[in-house]
Structures are given as structure tokens and as C-alpha cells.
Amino acid sequence: MDYADPSCAYCPPGVRACRQGDAEAHGPGFCPTKVDPATQAAALALYDDPETRRVAYESAVVEGEGYCKWCRVEELVQFAKRMGFRKIGIASCIMFADLAKTLSGILESHGFQVISVACKNGGVPKEAMGVAERQKIRPGSFEPMCNPVSQAELLNAHGSEFNVVMGLCLGHDSLFFKYAKALTTVLVTKDRVLGHNPVAALQLADGYYSRLWGPERPDQPPSLPAAGRRAKPAAKRKTAAS
């Protein structure tokens, strides 16, 4: 069948033809190379922009040099050095302030200037965003809102050339990305339950975290994207009718 959307998540482990450079010949029907090669070509042309090309190049070099040797903080330092950044901005959750201080010290020890802004900057009450008393974490007390737009604008205003996100709440991080002008990377992804390791829930989705699944969970893991699964019963009905 012809797929309308790419679905790389369903590519079988034994295929994943893009890793071998032969997706056009051996990729499944839902491979981006087969579904939308025009968009792929247009995207590739964007690497002609000198800055985009340099970021792609330096990222690949850091990956190659530090593969399975450097932790992410080391990769961050090396990438920033290779890019020639001088001023790095940290946008952190207030609960990560101590770790942001540690990161600031590490970066400063490598010669970088560091700006840091915590999420609660400005002390704006949650009521300003329409949050009701009963919707607070601790009703009856003052709770400042997370302020990712201010974090982004402050880092913009003070000349950050490269931003590092540390533990911003889901959704608040999205607003930071929306308003930040400099390139941004994520050092810490917040997960209050799993020690800031959200991938653990996916690794345990068939066991301890089976509660993640919704009411339409299939009995067996599907091998095809939803469009392909819908097409198979239709094809069977057509065959039976003929």
C-alpha cells in the first residue's frame, strides 16, 4: 500500500536500511525515503546554509571522537569549544540550581562565560496564568509559576550563544524552545518519579509501567503503522467478496 506519513518507529530491526544507505531499495513502504523524498531533498538543501552545515559537521565530529567515551557533559564542552561559543546560557528548574552551579563551574573552568536563569525567576504567582487555588501543588500557599518565556528572553538579551536546558517541566521546555534565539541542547530531562530518566518507563512498559497503555492497547505489538493495519482487513474483505 501507499503510506501518507513516515513511520520509522515500525521499521524492523533487521531492515533499517538508512543505516546502510540503501533505503530507497530496501526500506519499508512507510520509510520517509519512499513516502516523501521531496521533503527529504528540500531538507538536505538546508544544510547549504553555512551555520547549519557547521553545526552538523561539528556534531558528527564530536560523536565520532567521543563515541562511548565521553559523557554528555564532556560532549557539551567539546561541541561548544569546536563551535567557538564564548557565552553559554543555562535554563534550569529551580530544583536544579545546585547542579546548575556545578555545571557553571565546569564550563567556566574551560574558559566560557556562563549566564543562568532559573524557572521561577520573577516570582510571578500561578494565578496570573489562571491557575485556581485547587490546582496548585500546595493549595493555600504562594506558588510562583514556571517562567520559561522569561528564561529565554533573559538569555537572549544577555547574549547567550548556546543554551543548555536542565530539568524544565514538560510544556515549559517547549515554550523555552519557542522563544530562545540561540541553539539549545538538553542536558537533563525532568522526570520526578524516575530520577530524571524517562526512558525507563518505556523500557518497563510491558511490566512495571504497563499502566502507561490506553484502552486500545492491542493484544500483540503491531508490526505495521496504523494505516497499514487498517488496510489489511480491508484487503481481506475485498478478497472474500471477490
Shape summary: globular
**Helix and strand element order:** HHHHHEHEHEHEHH
Instruction: Note the gap between the termini.
Output: 19 Å
Largest sheet: number of strands, sense, barrel closure: 4 strands, parallel
Low-confidence stretches: none
Discrete helix count? 10
Strand fraction band? 5-15%
In spatial order, strands of the major sheet run 2-1-3-4
Helix content: 40-55%
CA gyration radius, whole angstroms: 23 Å
Mean pLDDT: 95
Number of DSSP strand runs: 4
Based on secondary structure, the structural category is alpha/beta
Task: Give an overview of the whole structure.
Strand 1 (87-92), helix 6 (97-109) and strand 2 form a beta-alpha-beta unit. This protein has 10 helices and 4 strands; from the N terminus they run H-H-H-H-H-E-H-E-H-E-H-E-H-H. Strands 2-1-3-4 form a 4-stranded parallel β-sheet, with helices on both faces. It is α/β, with parallel strands linked by helices. Among the domains are: 15-47, no CATH class; 49-75. The longest helix is centred in the first third of the chain and has 17 residues, at 50-66.
Question: What are the salient characteristics of this protein?
Answer:
alpha/beta; 4-stranded parallel β-sheet; 10 helices; globular
SSE layout and pairings?
Layout lengths: L22 H4 L5 H4 L1 H9 L4 H17 L5 H12 L3 E6 L4 H13 L3 E6 L29 H10 L4 E5 L5 H8 L3 E6 L10 H5 L22 H16 L1
Parallel strand pairs: 1-2, 1-3, 3-4
Helix pairs in contact: 4-5, 7-8
